Amino acid sequence: MTLILASRSSARQAMLRAAHISYRVELPDADEDVAKAAFRSTNTDPQALAMYLAEFKAQALNPVDPTTLIIGSDQTLALDDGSMLDKARDQDELACQLRRMAGRTHQLISAAVLVRGGEVIWRDVERVALTMRPLSDDFIRDYIAREWDEVRFCVGGYRIEGHGVQLFDRIEGSHFAIMGLPLLSLLRALRAQGILAS
Known about the structure:
Helix content is about 35%, strand content about 25%. It is an alpha/beta fold. α2 (about 30-40) runs antiparallel to α3 (about 45-60). It is globular. The model has no long low-confidence stretch (mean pLDDT about 95).
């Protein structure tokens, strides 16, 4: 049975490789920004948005083989006041976001789905609470200069597996979810589907 990951995320790909899961990457030919804007015009719940986008990306693929399983995934970030942040468009916007998050706790929400034949057959979501330490402007400037190429596609502008760990005082939740997948529950689902040995 073929398994497809509908994500360009290097962290998600690395997690699947480390777990010895055979898969290939295919990116949907669909405008995620348009889908996100349409959803947010009627619903501002960050968990619902993460799940919607995970499903949107997986269902946008149309594999020839109807038995193919597709992993769709997405993350959203909600500040302690309920507002959401998107991926920064440039380094200046990331600096503003880091100043806004500094000294506060935010929620990182990771959703994943499995789709077969256009139908969602499994879904899950995990939340992680991350408390960012106070950050000086000098630290933010240096951090962005070092990390921009790696974090430009990451909501929140950090990779916890890299230099981004220095941004935080406290983390409550799964390391895998921070990197972009509720991995343990996904592995259970893949075992149930016969992709992995029980």
